């Protein structure tokens, strides 16, 4: 006779139900906590006061895609620099989007922001950005600010946006010292992309460089600051996308 058979003889059905499913839930919570603390290990080796440069394509990229990474960097006392390679002027509201990005950086404690407004680096779904121009911008910034690490998009750009992919092409092919560490944000398949926090379990198994944000209000507020872009489908993105809660980085 099993344990639950013995218990069933001496307690009523309601209590048995609570015991059974309470045990299942408690095990689930325990596994989640263990995996979470596993994710809190030091993913990026650093010296004291290490400066890390985040390279994005548009205002709101930092909030939509990189929030867990930014949260991790802040929690571990990195100095975060952000270069946004355009001011998002596709709809002729570049100045508005610049202001929104500045406010979001203040909220996310990114104290060093550079917004590039160059005629060759304009927000567009169809434009191919010149790689050498991006490299010049980034290399000059690295030299002037003693940057030790760079984070940007991978070759798929999360959403397949050409501007995102240009960030990867430029950073991955530019000349750099051996001391400079470069990480790219992993693009996942569409099922994982929209599995929200549930992708935590898959990510924790497949990638050691795991960053987690468990604060949905922070994710929502970060995107809300980009008011001009916070349309209904981006609201759904915040709720259902893994990128509001989970980032996995790949070292290149």
TrEMBL record:
Question: One Gene Ontology cellular component annotation?
Answer: endoplasmic reticulum
Specify the superkingdom.
Answer: Eukaryota
Q: Which Pfam families did the record assign?
A: PIG-L (PF02585)
What Gene Ontology molecular-function terms does this entry list?
A: N-acetylglucosaminylphosphatidylinositol deacetylase activity
Q: Does this entry carry the keyword Membrane?
A: yes
- List the protein's name: N-acetylglucosaminylphosphatidylinositol deacetylase
Q: Which organism is it from?
A: Paramecium pentaurelia
Xref: InterPro entries: GlcNAc_PI_deacetylase-related
Keywords, alphabetical = Membrane, Transmembrane, Transmembrane helix
Q: Membrane-spanning regions, if any?
A: 15-37
């Amino acid at each position: 006779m099993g344990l639950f058979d013995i218990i069933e003889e001496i307690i009523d059905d309601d209590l048995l139900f609570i015991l059974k499913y309470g045990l299942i839930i408690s095990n689930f919570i325990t596994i989640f906590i263990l995996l979470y603390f596993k994710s809190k290990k030091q993913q990026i080796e650093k010296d004291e006061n290490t400066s890390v440069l985040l390279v994005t394509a548009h205002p709101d990229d930092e909030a939509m895609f990189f929030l867990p990474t930014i949260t991790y960097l802040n929690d571990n006392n990195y100095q975060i620099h952000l270069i946004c390679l355009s001011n998002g002027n596709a709809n002729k509201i570049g100045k508005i989007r610049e202001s929104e990005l500045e406010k979001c950086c203040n909220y996310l404690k990114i104290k060093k922001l550079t917004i590039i407004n160059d005629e060759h680096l304009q927000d567009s779904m169809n434009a191919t950005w010149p790689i050498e121009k991006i490299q010049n911008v980034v290399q000059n910034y690295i030299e002037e600010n003693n940057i030790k690490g760079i984070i940007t998009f991978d070759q798929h750009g999360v959403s397949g946006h050409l501007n995102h992919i240009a960030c990867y092409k430029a950073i991955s092919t530019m000349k750099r010292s051996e001391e400079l560490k470069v990480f790219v944000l992993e693009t996942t398949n569409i099922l994982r992309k929209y599995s929200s926090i549930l992708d935590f379990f898959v990510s924790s198994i497949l990638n050691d460089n795991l960053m987690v944000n468990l604060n949905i209000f922070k994710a929502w507020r970060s995107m809300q600051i980009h008011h001009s872009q916070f349309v209904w489908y981006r609201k759904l993105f915040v709720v259902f996308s893994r990128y509001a809660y989970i980032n996995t980085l790949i070292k290149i």
